[in-house]
Sequence to fold (225 residues):
Amino acid sequence: MTQHAEDDVDRHGGVAGLRLASGHTTGDALAGSLPVDRNQAILEAAKQVGAILKREGHAFALAGSVAVYAHGGAQNLQHDVDFAIRPEDAQAVAETLRGAGLAVRTPPEDWLLKADCLGQQVDLIFELAHQPVTTELLARADELSVDSVFMPVLSPTDLLHSLLSAFSEHHCDFGAVLPIARTLREKVDWAAVRRGCGDAPMPDAFFYFLERLDVIQPATKEGRS
Fold:
């Protein structure tokens, strides 16, 4: 699908030659002018990659902590930028980003690609909640402003479903997801999230946690089935 990592990474690890949405070519001066604030740097990377994907007509949706921010969450962003793309589009997306001057590589995980933009890591994910990203999932995305740049953003329901479905015995950080659930609770179809998670024990424990904290209403017997 893509070349190996050692073939893809820019030898100097930089983003010289990045062509932004306006079509202008930039060099190290742009990277050097990035704000020190990490949150703003992540937003800048999200805006640039989103603009590139929009310009070339790719189907995608912003995911992860930047998507939560776009839906009204706090600007407390995680260490990277996440975009959801369809598996069948991965090769074309990689070629588009390389053409814009970004380094794109294939990690050991077989469900995403990684790119570097303005010094920030960008994950191009084609599997969410253990399922391939689909046209239907992307069609449910909301067109939102991300720090003044409009782009498709995963719906709150799909965002929460992807976060809860990732819980396992080895990764179960309720504390990180709780503020997101609090912020987006009025926008989430919790019955749909419950159905999507099925009877998996870790998401079920988190639902119980949310109920005890009065973040969501207890599910009826029908809602649990």
Notes: Residues 1-17, 21-30 have pLDDT under 50 and may be disordered. Residues 209 and 215 are 9 Å apart (CA to CA). The two ends are 40 Å apart (CA to CA).
